[in-house]
Design a protein that fits this description.
The complex is a heterotrimer of chains A (116), B (100) and C (502). Chain A has 3 helices and no strands. With 116 residues, chain A is an all-alpha fold. Chain A has one domain. Chain B is mainly α and 100 residues long. The longest helix of chain B is centred in the middle third of the chain and has 25 residues. In chain B, 78% of the residues lie in helices and 0% in strands. Chain B has one domain. By secondary structure, chain C is of the alpha+beta class. Chain C folds into 3 domains: 187 residues, no CATH class; 72 residues, no CATH class; 104 residues, no CATH class. Chain C has a 7-stranded antiparallel sheet, with helices on one face. Classes of the chains: A mainly alpha (116), B mainly alpha (100), C alpha+beta (502). At the A-C interface, helix 1 and helix 2 of A face helix 1, helix 6, helix 8, helix 9 and helix 10 of C.
Chain lengths: 116, 100, 502
């Protein structure tokens, strides 16, 4: 009788963890994925201006259009990726890359092509 | 008149899709009531006809319409043709018997 | 479950996204399909605009400016849309005294101001419903549509992946088999065969609103100055009004100058701060000839007519505007317009069959346990929404035009008819469960011909008369309504047979 109760409790614990993992995955995928997409799009726009010399409005348009495709990819991966930690890590890396560009070595270079 | 080309392309895509459908077992049974799978020569023939038709469709459209319109028309006419073939197979499969 | 295998994860995602977003997507696809012919529906809902082909040349100074000065003398802007084949009237739009956008129509041949029907019609109600559900608070409507759009892309990709026999069942449709089999077949058929259309429509819809979803990207490149982005990308010119009055220069001269520069017709003029010394006039180029919704725009000084800004569509903006154009369908191409309408309806069928299949499967698994919220949402989003639309059309024909006497916004009443009927179909479905289908389909079978009848009684344009007079838009609408009634009644009869045979 004791072992049955213990098994029941273990089952209950597994369900709890399972639901939490699923909730985290959904939040990470939808919310984190969007934050990562915005970060990657902003970073790409910036790089397009600073490294390729595209006009500001052109870089914005290209980055935004690609943003939807990037978000689609991230969303699909968020639900397919078996290891939740890999998903969270990559999303954070995406967000970090944008922050790095904002405050890192390239930050000093001018944003508007031809302005400097 | 561009509508003539559009109709022509629709018919071309319809025939092309019909060729591909007639290579599939379930549809062959419906059209000819025989379960025999297509011999290699028939398979090659039907696929070639379909390929030529599918290549001809966007070419014809490009020459008559602008590139933007041609691309949109191609997607949509293909979809319409595929659905038309599907509905033919569902309700009037005998109509496809005469196709070479 | 997600993370437990590629196909299994996407199957889970497809089911959940479909269940959560199905109703919303049905509303978007239904309104979207109708709105392909929004200008034709407008002719039906605004009878005074059922005019013949507009004259090729017309004088805005003579025909429009006097009306604008009388109706909108103190308004902050006038928008004048030139007539076309599909819209045979001049449209004057301006914010009224309360700042609410108001439209009046002018006969392009006589210059007569057409009577105000007090209706937003399709372009003013169904179209905004399609892209915002009329939820304007804090852009909630746009964000819901964004979720719907991304969800649609997910559903499409996951659907193709989990469809095991995609080649083998490419043409398969077996309506003679069980309802569940036939429903799934139709879902797969409309989904696979029109996949490029559904994908591009969803993606392009999202791309139109890129500035709402990615303002951060604009902010990153144009910190604190988003207007600069608008000017560089789309030729948006702005300047403040002064308080000194000035007379407006000739709009015809500006239009002719733009026409000469483009070799193409303008479709709209927008006058900012009319009557002010700092007034300026935007002339925008027509979208009729190509898919790309160009942003060729010439902006003139209001009092002198001098050219302030001549913007031509840049190559990258042209890509974004190509996507916008393939969604908006503002180009002149009747075959494509019809194909879009059918494509949109095929998308609606795809989503509806998907929801029906899932609710049917759930009912089979759990036994007939009566009404469930999702069954009700399914009914409400399909037949319920159709009924709401018919209610909107009927209210348009049935409400007297002089209701404005009682300080009631007649146009808003039509909108209320739409939403109240929609809400009542949900209540009906919650009470009756799956049995609500039959009642609502019968109601469609009655309401649609009623709308046709009302059109005849209130305007004298019955089907033969419309065809005779060349009013194809009105005739088309009446025919569509009759066809809708026939399909609904046929579906109701088929439903009845299945229930009695079960």
């Amino acid at each position: 009788m004791h072992s049955a109760a213990k098994q029941g409790r273990q089952q209950h614990q597994m369900d709890w963890r399972h639901h939490a993992s699923l909730a985290l995955r959904v939040l990470a995928g939808i919310g984190g994925g969007f934050a990562c997409t915005v970060a990657l799009a902003s970073a790409s726009a910036r790089l397009l201006v600073q490294l390729i010399g595209l006009a500001g409005h052109e870089a914005v348009l290209i980055a935004c259009m690609l943003g939807f495709v990037i978000y689609l990819g991230l969303l699909l991966w968020a639900f397919v990726e078996p290891q939740l930690w890999r998903l969270c890590l990559l999303l954070l890396l995406g967000i970090a890359s944008d922050l790095a560009l904002q405050f890192g070595p390239l930050a000093a270079r001018p944003l508007i092509a031809g302005a400097g | 008149m561009p509508e003539v080309t559009q109709l022509g392309v629709f018919i071309l895509c319809y025939l092309a899709f019909a060729q591909l459908a007639l290579l599939q077992q379930s549809h062959r049974q419906k059209v000819w009531r025989s379960a025999a799978p297509a011999p290699a020569r028939e398979r090659w023939l039907r696929r070639s006809v379909a390929a030529i038709s599918f290549a001809g469709a966007p070419t014809a459209l490009m020459t008559v319409e602008g590139p933007g319109f041609a691309v949109l028309l191609w997607f949509l006419l293909m979809a319409a043709a595929a659905i038309a073939v599907s509905l033919t197979l569902t309700w009037r499969p005998g109509l496809l018997r005469g196709l070479p | 479950m997600p993370g437990n295998g590629f196909r299994a994860s996407l199957s889970w995602l497809h089911t959940w996204a479909g269940v959560l977003l199905g109703g919303l997507l049905l509303a978007v696809f239904w309104s979207g399909s109708l709105v392909v012919f929004d200008r034709e529906i407008d002719r039906w809902m605004l009878p005074s605009t059922r005019l013949g082909s507009p004259p090729v040349d017309l004088s805005l100074d003579r025909l429009v400016v006097p009306h604008a000065q009388r109706l909108a003398g103190t308004a902050a802007r006038w928008s004048i849309t030139l007539p076309s084949e599909r819209t045979p009237v001049i449209q004057l739009e301006f914010p009224n005294a309360e700042g609410v956008s108001t439209r009046r129509f002018i006969d392009p041949a006589s210059g007569e101001l057409l009577p105000d029907h007090g209706s937003w019609a399709a372009t003013g109600f169904l179209f905004p419903f399609h892209y915002s559900l009329h939820l304007r608070w804090r852009n909630v409507g746009y964000w819901l549509l964004g979720i719907a759009g991304m969800g649609m892309l997910l559903l499409l990709v996951s659907g193709v992946v989990i469809h095991r026999k995609i080649i083998r069942e490419f043409f398969t449709f077996r309506p003679h088999k069980s309802t569940q089999r036939a429903t799934l077949d139709l879902h797969n058929l409309t989904g696979v065969v029109a996949f490029p259309f559904h994908f591009l429509i969803s993606l392009s819809g999202l791309i139109i609103f890129f500035a709402i979803y990615f303002p951060t990207v604009i902010e990153r490149i144009y910190p604190g100055n988003p207007a600069a982005f608008s000017t560089e990308a789309f030729g948006n010119y702005t300047r403040q009004a002064s308080t000194e009055p000035a007379t407006l220069a000739s709009l015809d001269a500006m239009r002719d100058r733009a026409r000469g520069a483009w070799g193409d017709e303008p479709y709209m003029l927008r006058i900012w701060h009319p009557g002010d010394a700092q007034a300026y006039v935007e002339v925008r180029r027509s979208f009729a000839r190509e898919v790309t919704m160009n942003v060729d725009r010439m902006t003139f000084d209001g009092s002198s007519g001098a050219l302030l800004l001549d913007h031509r569509t840049g190559p990258v903006a042209a890509i974004q505007r190509f996507f916008s154009g393939l969604h908006f369908v503002q180009f002149e191409h009747w075959t494509l317009r019809w194909l879009y309408f059918l494509g949109g309806l095929s998308g609606w069928i795809m989503i509806a069959t998907g929801l029906l299949f899932w609710t049917g499967a759930r009912r089979q698994r759990q036994g007939h346990t009566g009404a469930h919220l999702l069954d009700a949402i399914c009914v409400c989003s399909c037949s319920g929404l159709i009924l709401a639309t018919l209610g909107f059309f009927i209210a348009n024909r049935a409400l007297p035009t002089d209701v404005g006497r009682f300080e009631i916004d007649r146009a808003a009443l039509e909108g209320w008819a739409f939403f109240l009927i929609w809400a009542s179909t949900l209540v009906h479905a919650l009470i009756r469960g799956a049995g609500a289908w039959h009642g609502q389909l019968l109601a469609i079978g009655v309401a649609a011909p009623a709308a046709v009848l009302l059109n005849w009684l209130t305007t004298g344009d019955h089907l033969l008369h419309s065809l005779q007079q060349g009013r194809y838009a009105v005739a088309g609408m009446d025919l569509f309504l009759m066809l809708l009634a026939l399909l609904a009644l046929a579906a109701a009869r088929r439903l009845n047979r299945r229930i009695t045979n079960a």
